[in-house]
Amino acid sequence: MARQTDPVCRLCRREGMKLFLKGHRCYSPKCPIEKRANPPGQHGDRRRGRTSDFRPYLREKQKVRRIYSVGERQFRGYFKLASKSKGVTGEALLRILERRLDNAVFRLGFASSRPEARQLVRHGHFNVNGRRVDIPSFLVRVGEVIAVREKSRALPLFKERAAEAESRTVPEWLTRDLTAMQGTVSRLPERENVDLAIQERLIVEFYSR
């Protein structure tokens, strides 16, 4: 996805919910959406006339793209891959997004947000099955071990994240060893493991129209 240079809190206000793009700030009283729930823009982006029937589908797609920091072209590719999978297309799409390496790093508690996880992966701080991987969109598979590289473990950032991770729960499809600063993909993620207010049906209808 192209680098986001605009204030990310505006994205949360646009979608009307917390997208958890700023890490600790999202859980603090400083979160702008707690004080200004209206959409960004002059006069709260008030729209005249009737809202388009197309808008809910677009907004849901944009919301999920922003949560996982995925560009439109890549997101469309994920949808095509999900549509060829067995089962419900919307659920398959969410499973693919959850398997992204940057998301897995965030879920394991080694980063405070998905954008931070994306940056850490790009800087080469993680190994997958003992090999360095610096591609945030890398899709992890069952049995693979995601570990903070040995040289990176001594960095103050990862010591801080390890202390914070003790209070964060890990989804059932992952297992974590904080002592070794690593996690294992024990199984593929399921729909119930996605703890976000997402209506994937609207995304399927958006691309199927």
Structure description:
Among the domains are: 1-49, Orthogonal Bundle (Ribosomal Protein S4 Delta 41, Chain A, domain 1); 100-185, Structural Genomics Hypothetical 15.5 Kd Protein In mrcA-pckA Intergenic Region, Chain A, CATH 3.10.290.10. The longest helix has 14 residues, at 55-68. The radius of gyration is 18 Å and the shape is globular. Strand 1 and strand 2 (131-132) form a beta hairpin. Strands 2-1-3-5-4 form a five-stranded antiparallel β-sheet, covered by helices on one side. Helices cover 40% and strands 8% of the residues. The protein is α+β, with helices and mostly antiparallel strands.
Could you give a quick summary of the protein structure above?
The chain has nine helices and five strands. It has 209 residues and is of the alpha+beta class. Among the domains are: 1-49, Ribosomal protein S4/S9, N-terminal domain (Ribosomal Protein S4 Delta 41, Chain A, domain 1, Orthogonal Bundle); 100-185, RNA-binding S4 domain (Structural Genomics Hypothetical 15.5 Kd Protein In mrcA-pckA Intergenic Region, Chain A).
